[in-house]
Amino acid sequence: MLELLKRIFKKDQLILLGAGISVAAIMSVLYISQPKFLYLLNLKIYDNYLRQYHQPPATNVPVIIDLDEKSLSELGQWPWPRYRVALLLKYLTSYGAVAVASDIIFSEPDRTSPQIMQADVKRELHIDMRFEGLPKDLMDYDELLAHNLTGGPYVLGFDFSRDKAVAEHDCRVRPAKVAVLSPPGAPSPHDCLPKGEQLVCPIPILAEAAPKCGFITINPDPDSVYRRMPVLYSYNGHFYPSLALATLMLASGEQNLIIKMSPVGIESIKLNDMVIPTDAGGQMLINYRGPMRTFEYISASDVLARTLPPGCLRGKIAFIGTSASGLKDIRATPLDPSFPGVEAHATLLDNILSDQVLSVPDWAPGLEFLGILLGGLVTTFLLVWTRASWIILPVLGMGGAMWYGAVFFYREQNYFISPMYSYLTLGLTFITLTMIKFWREEIAKRYIHRAFAHYLAPSVISQIMDNPDTLSLEGQEKEITIQFSDVRNFTSLSEKLSPTQVTNLLHDYLTPMTRIITEHEGTLDKFIGDAVMAFWNAPLDIENHQEKSLHAALAQQRKLEELNERFQEKYGFTIAVGIGIHCGLVRVGNMGSADLFDYTLIGDNVNLASRLEGLTKYYGQKIVVSQAVKDACGDGYYFRILDNVRVKGKEKPVTIYTVYTLEEAEARREELSLHERAHQAYEDRDFVTAETLFCELGELGRDQVLCDLYSERCAHLKADPPDCGWDCVFTLKTK
């Protein structure tokens, strides 16, 4: 096949063809994986379509009864007494509203009810308060509102909260009656619908009296814009309708819903003859009709003042909500950054009644994927055989066809078919192949020249010569063992020496240390002053690289004992070195700019290894290793637990150890056994015993820093015990 292609295409054409196919393949992978930044960009494309092509309300049915600034100014701050809410509901039905939905949750009793005020005054002030001439029916406003709700066309709102701190009270909200039409192999709708965790409901007397209740929950997309709303929620094996759907059920007199399933999830929800298309998770794209006040708004104060013309709400469905900013029901939408949440429910009702629900059909991904392939391959073949300047018009023509094809589906079918990935493929293919076509040879020559000029390690150069494709800034993700070592208090020590002596000291120390690293098949990364960074398992695979790194660290400490004898004679002091070792997934390869780069590591695990080296001084140890290193090394060494810590800059805790050879551990068996007992008592929250054992351990004369640290910590925890959820993790505030 390759020979046939070589006979048909020239070398440069093959390169262009391969690059074009690669771009299309990459975009296909990105389309399948949907990375967040592209997902957010696609949302902006959707917003642009909505801004350009949105339509005015298709029905005049929804109307907003607004608890606006005027109402709050005339009638007082919210919450209002429930008798006033009862009057508001009564007046709305007297004006002809066929249904009234409340985008407000009455989750607590009305504290202004006379009988509650009586009880509060009696309990707090020990005064018997009586109301003369007040009818008995007005003693409890909640009971009055419940009486008005009974039998009326009213829907109360409730909410599904993700805050587990919300105390769930006695909830009397009734679920919807739902039938499910499901083909073989389709998932359960409960597995597809959003699931409620905590319910915030009207108080029981109101929930039981209300003919219907609907949830007002609406969650934003990752960019905090509200574009979609769930039609149903799943909670405890039951289905609960949204406020708009519950209101429509009440107004139509239909109590039963039908969920139609597809092999990938929910396809639609049916109420009477109305079919509501949803996504697989049971959510609707809200076909916003415009910014705030696109629908009719009536001030609640005007309703209560009875200043509206008779019958003005005949045949309408009223949604009670608020546009007042102080009541915090303002949402950002594609058409308005300050959109009242109640109008979103009204919009959803208008979408359903007008059969203008926006949706992404099941076949949309296939069409979008086809657009990626056509955009990439057609552009590639045009560029392979023609000049770049000649294909500008065809490319612009393809771009226009993609855009206005999506416009047709949007305006005529209420389908959203995104052209974004097709556009990106078209543009990236054109740019990539044009650059390759003009600058391939020059870029290749300069790239190779810069690459070899910056390699110092022979093993790296050999690997590049064997496989030139490895020469890239991106590198690869790989499990690496990282070692950091540092001379403690080197700045203070160097002040005692001349610059020449400092240079000689570093040379005498670093030379044998790096030799030990290379002898144990490690790769020297860099010197950072007196510190050394090295790693194992790159660029070549190293078997048992964790053990080899650990063996090198122990050899370095033994070598340091020999060096210190010479340093004492030559400079009048000895040095101490701390070594931190960690193993984990990092990115290894050529890092830096396009002009200057080094073969090195990058990643969170590199930072953790550096933090472990810093902990050697804090815990008074020569070597500190992570749990990952201990797990990989097995029983060939003795690992002494030091702590469970959360290092600075990290959220996830890590268990750290120091390490001994088995011979050294046997020689210190009594001491190490005592340490294990002390640390176990500490983890068991027996801080009295732990403090005693650590003090006893400190009297042996070794590891004084560690013993003092734990003795002080135990004394503190003994005086101020942690709560029952204590996880034994100590959070470090410094590096």
Summarize the structure.
With 735 residues, the protein is α/β, with parallel strands linked by helices.
Describe this structure in words.
Helix 10 packs across helix 12. The strands form 6 sheets. Strands 18, 19, 20, 21, 22, 23, 24, 25 and 26 form a 9-stranded mixed sheet that branches. Strands 1, 2, 3, 5, 6, 14 and 15 form a 7-stranded mixed sheet that branches. Strands 4-10-11-12 form a 4-stranded mixed sheet, with no helix packed on it. The chain is 46% helix and 19% strand. The chain has 735 residues and is an alpha/beta fold.
Termini separation comes to: 58 Å
Which of globular, elongated, flat, extended, rod-shaped describes the shape?
A: flat
| Structural class by sheet pairing and helices | alpha/beta
Largest sheet: 9 strands, mixed
Q: Give the strand tally.
A: 26
